[in-house]
Amino acid sequence: MEKEEIFTKGRGAQINVANKFSALSHEFRDDFLNYCEMEGDEVANSKTSIIDTFPKTIINKVISPDIGMEYSLNPYQGCEHGCIYCYARNSHEYWGYSAGIDFEQKILVKRNSVALLEKKLQSSRWKAVPIVLSGNTDCYQPVEKKLEITRQLLKTFFKYKHPVGIITKNSLLLRDLDILRELAKDNLVQVHLSITSLNEDTRRLLEPRTATIKKRLETLKKLSEAGVPVSVMMAPIIPGINSHEILPLVKAISEKGALGVGYTMVRLNGAIGGIFSDWIQKAMPDRAEKVLHQIAECHGGNLNDSEFGRRMKGSGNIAEQVSQQFKIARKMYLSGRSTPKLNCELHQQYKNGQMQLF
């Protein structure tokens, strides 16, 4: 009789995987597991750990030619949202942790983020160019509610009249609507809200600790009504899971005021291939093989494609069908809308800062 796979609710990854950068590795042996069961001990603690860090720099140059940003800023590394497909999981290995459960449980906080940003914006050599919050991990993940580092960063961008982009899937963003309104008056902010599905059951499985779809649509509407430019990222498209939702989702976001929509095809690079494969066998065993096969079909027979210019959109029949659906959806529901270009002209006048309004 086969052992039943246990699905852990509230987490995306179901396993920790070996860190390829570590000379050390560990495993849970059967005799240790048996001992824990006899003693009534938990094998692993599911509580999230907050780890303080103090980096020397905070602004990252984005070298990838197929990502729509030049610079990013991530106040947190690791992400409690637990999105199973997240490409940022691999970056946790650089810190000595696993791309699996560690990525969701061990959150590194860059405590000196605000001071580093201010130093950068005051530099005579720095020329204003949009900096994107959350190019790697979400700046509005749960720990932000307590620490408010992202809020302080936004205040700093406003103080120096510097353009900023935000990528998030958390409605906590609305807490900072006061600052976003002020930034928007000078065309200094764009928000890219991540909405991958209209199905709440799908959301719970793919993105277990994120805001509900209802909350995200409400956030989209409130931002739009407040005059904050907002578009939606339907990323990633996963064949067999959310690929059938393109038209209804674009229709829904258009009704809430979105100015545009973007997408990427899922690609399971590095450790994410094993993490995702393990997850889908436990979360969706009835369609696991079909989904994995379709993902591979989009990347030349592999779960990942690292070729610039092709890796984000995929190739083959399924990828082409997705591309055509987005073209139709934009024409039907978003025709005539566009996101205004961010203003890079004001910052030079505010190199020494200004009086804060908050």
Entry keywords:
rSAM; 358 residues; 12 helices; alpha/beta; single chain; globular; iron; iron-sulfur cluster binding
How would you describe what is shown here?
The structure is a single chain. By secondary structure, this protein is α/β, with parallel strands linked by helices. It has a single domain (40-335), classed as pyruvate-formate lyase- activating enzyme (Alpha-Beta Horseshoe). It has twelve helices and ten strands. The protein has a seven-stranded mixed beta sheet with strand order 2-3-6-7-8-9-10. A three-stranded mixed beta sheet has the order 1-5-4. Helix 5 (149-159) packs parallel to helix 6 (177-185) and helix 9 (246-255) packs parallel to helix 12. The radius of gyration is 21 Å and the shape is globular.
